[in-house]
Specification:
The chain is of the alpha+beta class. The protein has 8 helices and 16 strands. The strands form 4 sheets. The chain has a 7-stranded mixed beta sheet with strand order 1-2-3-13-5-15-4, covered by helices on one side. It has a 3-stranded antiparallel beta sheet with strand order 12-6-14. Strands 8-7-11 form a 3-stranded antiparallel beta sheet.
């Protein structure tokens, strides 16, 4: 093997060493990385001081990149910027700025881009500047949530379709989009149960963007989605990553959820750069 794969929990996640992902990867080495991704869902690389160009090249090995849109400061580029630093000046953004308010929902459990008509496969997040304390990322396995169900429960959810809505999820923290922003987005529908093509293992695509089960009463819908998220985020199914500069993490957006944690945005700097890789496969309904 060209790489070393070291699990970080008994359930999911692995640290990858023995490879430089800043450099072009031959097919055999990337095949090992992709196999580790399919098995472990979350891959952690340390001491990888990535440039934007290197991050794009590495990310594109997983598939086509999504473009970023909406309120994110990096809209119109391949990146989603997670930072309290102004993209133009480098100065700290005030806590009451709309850009910081928008990022508050990142502290709720979610999977990236489930609110898009074509769901994402995975994300790559790189740590460019990290605060001395706080600002960790927590991740949880929705494959473990599915595995915890009884066979009867698995059969009952197999064909369910979920409506995902970005305006709904941002609204949970009080953020509202402008009419112009809303014109570029709307609810979409995806199958709840996902199957990894390489392993055949199943997971559930859930998180804060998951608004409701199509065709179900609101109370029953919410109860199911809340139960699945509670199963995924049991302590034994979670991993907390305390970032160091030059860390890079790849996570599966169809079999894992994640959330940001707080840090002192007035005293410390944090700059994370995310690329999101499209699955290229629309599921059902596209738009409601």
């Amino acid at each position: 093997m060209a790489i070393t794969v070291t699990p970080v929990t008994p359930v999911f996640g692995a640290r990858i060493s023995g490879v430089n992902i800043n450099a072009p990867l031959d097919d055999a080495v990337f095949a090992e990385i992709r196999a580790a991704f399919d098995e472990h869902l979350v891959l952690i690389f340390s001491d990888q001081p990535m440039t934007d160009e290197a991050q794009i090249e590495f990310s594109e090995r997983f598939g086509p990149l999504e473009g970023t849109r909406g309120v994110n400061p990096a809209a119109g580029t391949p990146f989603a910027r997670q930072s309290n630093l102004d993209i133009k000046t480098g100065e700290v953004i005030a806590g009451d700025d709309r850009r910081m308010f928008y990022q508050k929902a990142n502290m709720l459990w979610h999977a990236d881009s489930t609110f898009k008509a074509v769901p994402s496969l995975c994300s790559v997040l790189t740590a460019r500047i990290v605060p001395p304390e706080g600002g960790a990322t927590e991740l949880a396995s929705t494959r473990a949530a599915y595995a915890s169900l009884t066979e009867k429960e698995k059969a009952e959810i197999e064909d369910l379709v979920i409506e995902h809505d970005f305006a709904y999820s941002r609204g949970l923290v009080g953020f509202t989009f402008t009419p112009e922003e809303l014109a570029t987005m709307g609810p979409v529908r995806h199958r709840l149960v996902r199957t990894n093509a390489a392993s055949g293992l199943k997971s559930v695509m859930i998180g804060v963007h998951a608004k409701c089960v199509v065709g179900w009463p609101e109370d029953e819908s919410r109860a199911l989605l809340d139960d699945l998220l509670a199963r995924a985020t049991r302590p034994e199914n979670t991993y907390r990553h305390d970032w160091r500069a030059d860390d890079a993490i790849v996570w599966d957006n169809q079999a894992a959820v994640h959330r940001a944690t707080e840090f002192d945005t007035t005293a410390h700097h944090r700059f994370m750069q995310r690329t999101t890789i499209s699955s290229g496969i629309p599921t059902v309904g596209w738009r409601v």
